[in-house]
Amino acid sequence: MSAEYSYGSGRPGAPKRPGKPSQPTDPRGKPSTGRIARIFTGQGHGYIRLKDDREVYFHRGDLRDGTAFNDLHVGDDVKFELLEDRVSGARALRVTPRKK
Question: Could you give the CA distance from residue 56 to residue 81 in angstroms, rounded to a whole number?
Answer without folding.
Answer: 11
